Amino acid sequence: MSDSLISLLTALGDDELILGHRHSEWTGFAPHIEEDVAFSSIAQDEIGHAAGYFGILGTLTGDDPDHIALGRAPEDYRNAVLCERANGEWAYTLARHWLYDTADDLRLEVLESSAHEELAQLATKMRREERYHLIHADAWIKRVAHGPVEGRTRLEGGLSRAFGEAIGLFEPFEREDDAIKEGWLPTASSELRRRFIDRASASLDELGLPTEVRAGVDEAAEFVASSSGDLIASGEEPPGQGTRSTGGGGRRGVHSDDFRQLWDDMTRTYREHPGATW
Fold it and tell me: Distance from CA of residue 166 to its chain's centroid?
């Protein structure tokens, strides 16, 4: 059993699980019925992908995948902070959707070469499905960016709020160096972060969206521990001191206030009815 592989699978599965639940909250509330259906389908896919990661994890640890998903304390989840943020308005959700699926496509691409055969096969399967998520996100971003001024302005605001925290998707997870040496993760998070910033920035430039939406994003930043133990970008002050968040901390169980509400809703049935399945 490899502790580094367990850490990798936990982070990957938690990202999918938590974002899937956030997407599911749009069911019945999306701007029109087509998006009710689309976001419900995307949410179902993400939670299904989490089940795939947790299935491998359960084989390694002997733990039940349902317990992995719903039976842990809040501080035991390793999802990026971006995934847990409250949906807010539609523009923020679209921005997060596009940023996450852009990042996930890069991540799945390298995982297809993982030394763990089952993980590599799962990544290939997921990437085929996630392709449609990215097509959906791209279509919305282009539609709003080329649409009326009000919508474009709202989109810019959503991207400004989400872009910095999207960097937290590439916060190194626990034992990452070991995972790279063992071949579970073929490419380091720092390199994936650079590729993500380059790709996302090029797409935003093509749409004519202002550079301000990604202001403060430092391609060369490294995540380090602050005096409080929280992970922040090198040279950045701890959160709450007027600096823009890089979305760090999630990979070590440090979450935002938004997470507690989501965790409580997500796990309530499992906690109140032991043995229930999802």
Answer: 7
